Amino acid sequence: MTDNQFDNFVRAKLHDHSAPVPAGLWDKVNPAKDDDDRKGIIIPRKFRWGLPLLALLILAGSVTGYFIFSDDASGNITTGQNTVAQTGSGTGNSTITETNTSTNHQQNTPPENNNQIDAAANIEAPSTYSKEEEANQKNSLSINEPETTATDKNATVSSTPTRTLTNTIDENIASSKGIDNINISNNKRKNITPGSIESMQVLNKNTKNSTPIPFVRNTDLTTRNEASISSTESRDEEMVYPVTFSGNFEPGNTISLSKANFGLSGLMQRVQVSSAYSRKFKNIIVCPPYKVRNTDWFAEVYVSPDIAFKSIENRSATTQYLAKKDSSESMRLGYSAGVRLVKPITDNFLVRTGLQYTQINEKFTYRTEDEVKTITVISVRTIIRGPGDTLRVTDTSTVQQVGFKTNSIKNRYRSFDIPVTVGYQFGNDNLQFGINAGVIFNISSWYQGVILDSSLATVPISKGTNQVYKNNIGLGLYGGISVLKRMGENTQLFFEPYFRYNLSGITNGQASYQQKFSLGGLSIGLRYNLNRR
Amino acid sequence: MKKNVFISTVAMLFFFTACKKELSDNFTTYPGDPRNDTVWVATAPGNAPIHQLANQFLPDLIIDTFDCALGDTITFKDYISIRIPAASFTENSATTPASGKVRLEFFRLKKKGDFIKFFKPTTSSGYLVESGGGFFIRVVKNGQELKLAPNASITVRFADTEDPKTNMQVFHARETLPFISSGIDTMHTWTRHTDTSWIKIWQGQDSLGNVLKGYELTTTQLRWTAANRYIDSSLPHTNIFAYLPQNFTNKNTLVYAVFENQKIVVNLTAEYRSRSFTTMRIPKGAKIRILSFSRLGTDLYLGTKLVNDVGTNNVYKIEPQKKSLTDILAYINSL
Q1: Could you tell me how many CB contacts below 8 A there are between chain A and chain B?
Q2: Which of A101, A125, A488, B228, by CA, is between 20 and 30 Å from A419?
Q3: Residue B122 in contact with residue B133, Cβ under 8 Å?
Q4: What is the ipTM of this complex?
């Protein structure tokens, strides 16, 4: 009793006491109010119970979600079904509101039903559901739709404890009541397989101790939930909910509706999360990894300006000879051209081979003395043959001038090669990078131009008369870095700076020196996909 | 898109294969090289290439010795004989006859080409003379050239390649004093000897019994002597002109007009104003051959132009060809 007296005292003293709420408290509690507005969550500031209620709902939702996810995890929900469901609800916010019609609806909350797209509105009522049952449901369950009345719109927030979630699927509410009010037994739970239930029965929360939910179909692995509401009778749209179970459904089996709701609520949560993300990202269809071997074939055609690097090793040549040779020869821009076949082994690794023509150009300069250059001139002479006899003679003749010529001749070192390279390629569809390395097999080499003989005189060399250079220079090493830019559906433009190092020289053993070339170039070409789609 | 890619690819391939130029040259003339000299001068200097050209044409002299105190008759091939009286030579400053062994140098102007080799055209003060032949005689003692003593004379008998003319006279060549030993004597001209009598016609037989005809002239002067005669200057005549490409100037080119049917060789002098070579008093209707000899650097050029009828056209273009000395001398000897 003492305790009661004290309680009564305190109650009497504090009966009319009200503590003022500090300004800005709500902003501190909910600093992301604007974000909430953007997200469509409606919690009035003056509603003092809103925050605890929200926390409670979040807690309840978390617990529920835990069970749902744990159930989903054991139910092997197919990803494909989830993807379809997320895409279908991308822009809408579904609200399932359960309210008691006896409670008073506050009008001070602005309606947010413009953003509320009722997923249940798309639920098609099965033909087996009667109108009378539907009318009874109105006392216990209201589903907000764009077409609902003003009362329904304002029913999103209630002064009495309601089970309303705005902008989130209120499956927790449904479950909290449904779980309490619906008793579904599943005697053969272990045998349940993904099946189909009538979601209408899920919505029929007023069904006290409802009988086991009849299964409409059990032929497909995916269950189809269908509900019918009077306001949506005219709708023929059908929405598929990927509700799955760990067991196999068989005719006559019963399952717990709460389990079904969990599955549904979990799905709706995912829909909600996906909807949130969909505002930030475009729809991206993520294809599953395709582990099958790459069957593409590519053909490449390319040309490359080349710079040759010459190295000379003396064997028996004189210093004067090498000096004269060095001063007479200078490398010029050469080129390569070829075609290649490219076979990707995987998405990243590829093998290339083909046929390549390479021409190294060298400028050979030498001087020839006592050259005569003939110039055609027109001369006019006035010849006086005698007094009063003047003859004007116009003559076209030639003038010879003697000097020296600085002759420049182009030495050409030509070869046909077969490059065999492997590469690693990465990047996206638009831009790709690659690293390539391999060997180059020489098929044939030949030369044309002039060289210095032992007396420092120029001697012409040709393909047939060649005593200095090899006809096959053997192997070369290849390394390059490629950049590929997509040009069309099946075409890529690529640039590949590369370096080629020949392992052997071009001169034979009889030459007084060994000459070796290395090449650096930039291949520019096109890559075609031979497997045109 | 595909079309553009294809065109770009083909264009690039053409770009890389377009360069077909195999050889390029950069010609540079030798500065100061006489071969590139196209400048005419009013008077050719002493070191002009024409002098070097004349030296190349000079043949070897025939040399023999004799005792000038005793006198001698010296015979050379081609039926040439020189009869030298005793004590007929004196040194330049002395009045007493020279004695002892002396060296005789001899060369004969037998054919038209010989007049070219020694640059002794058959002209006398601008007038054409026809030659029956000539010779060069020099007597040297101890390196010093002797001259004929006063009232002394030598007689030279030589066979001519043509039938001897009866109205030949003795001509001597005017030379630059002191005598030049090389090059062209630009002062050369034939002057008639004071003794204007006709030269005797000589006739004999060779060892095979063939008839030989020639001249037997007596002269009181040594060095260049010839049996010449003036041609008829009253006949219609004309000037002729010859021009050559600009490389051939009066510094490196000599031009002659050689008569086909007469032993007449005329030098065409350089006319600076018209950059041509000319001569006067060429008989109209004459058949001549215009020859040019040039030396450009060490290269020799020969130009020929056959004129069958002088007067129809008297301006001729000569286009020399590069020849070797042997070829040029062979051509000269064939004239």
Answers
A1: 103
A2: A488
A3: no
A4: 0.71
